[in-house]
């Protein structure tokens, strides 16, 4: 699956507000006014923007249900860390709710008017940036000359199965959201996720055919290239010419 690195989340470029804004930009945060926030904060605040009180556990379930298909799903520790940050900024409030089962009280969180205004401003004003593509499967196929025979096919077939499973999940979750009018836009994104994973499955299928064609070509021309022993970089490719002076 294509995912953004959780340790280096990327998002729209923040609006710099004086020196503080410039520092926020260097740290990869996005903000409104004098309260820059990292992208995960906006994701958590966005989950609360559907006007429901949610616990940290609820937020994790909702993130797994929707965010995980196109961004990533934060861990429990990240969610609670962001809730603490958002509450300190005045963007959410919390209260303890007694449990009928006798278990310890549950803390639930709700968005404030200020928080809703902030996430609305971010959604409307954040810069549109291209997504960061980090495709581990393609990285391994790129190193296909180092793989065992037919291992590239095995990798692609495993990726196909994963893409098919994720597409089915997105379809089922999208259908489940149809009964909730407030989730109209998340439902559209789930439809996008279904199409995306179908495209990933089809791309893997096409590359399997490409591998068959490559095998036929190598069978006709000689031994399979390995470790750069057969063939050479095209003229003008990195490392194909003399080093630049200097």
Put the structure in a nutshell.
The chain has 246 residues and is mostly helical. It contains eight helices and five strands, in the order αββαβααββαααα. Helix content is 51%, strand content 8%.
Describe what you observe in this structure.
The chain has 8 helices and 5 strands; from the N terminus they run H-E-E-H-E-H-H-E-E-H-H-H-H. The longest helix has 38 residues, at 184-221. The protein starts with 17 loop residues before the first helix and ends in a 25-residue tail after the last helix. It is elongated. Helix 3 (56-65) packs across helix 4 (76-88). The model is unreliable at 1-29 (pLDDT under 50). By secondary structure, it is mainly alpha-helical. It is 51% helix and 8% strand. A hairpin with a 2-residue loop joins strand 1 and strand 2 (35-37). It has a 3-stranded antiparallel β-sheet with strand order 3-5-4. The protein has a two-stranded antiparallel sheet with strand order 1-2.
């Amino acid at each position: 699956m294509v995912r953004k690195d959780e340790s280096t989340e990327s998002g729209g470029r923040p609006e710099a507000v004086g020196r503080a804004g410039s520092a926020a930009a260097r740290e990869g945060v996005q903000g409104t006014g004098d309260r820059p926030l990292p992208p995960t904060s906006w994701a958590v605040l966005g989950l609360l923007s559907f006007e429901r009180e949610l616990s940290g556990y609820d937020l994790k379930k909702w993130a797994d249900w929707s965010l995980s298909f196109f961004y990533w799903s934060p861990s429990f520790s990240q969610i609670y860390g962001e809730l603490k940050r958002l509450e300190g900024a005045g963007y959410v409030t919390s209260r303890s709710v007694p449990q009928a089962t006798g278990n310890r009280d549950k803390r639930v969180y709700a968005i404030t008017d200020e928080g809703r205004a902030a996430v609305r401003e971010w959604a409307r004003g954040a810069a549109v940036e291209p997504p960061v593509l980090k495709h581990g499967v393609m990285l391994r196929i790129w190193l296909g000359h180092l793989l065992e025979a037919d291992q590239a096919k095995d990798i692609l077939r495993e990726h196909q199965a994963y893409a098919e499973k994720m597409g089915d999940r997105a379809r089922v979750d999208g259908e489940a959201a149809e009964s909730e009018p407030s989730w109209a836009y998340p439902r559209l994104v789930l439809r996008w996720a279904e199409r995306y994973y179908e495209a990933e499955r089809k791309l893997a299928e096409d590359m399997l055919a490409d591998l068959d064609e490559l095998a036929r070509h190598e069978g006709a021309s000689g031994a399979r290239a390995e470790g750069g022993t057969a063939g050479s970089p095209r003229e003008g490719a990195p490392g194909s010419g003399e080093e630049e002076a200097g």
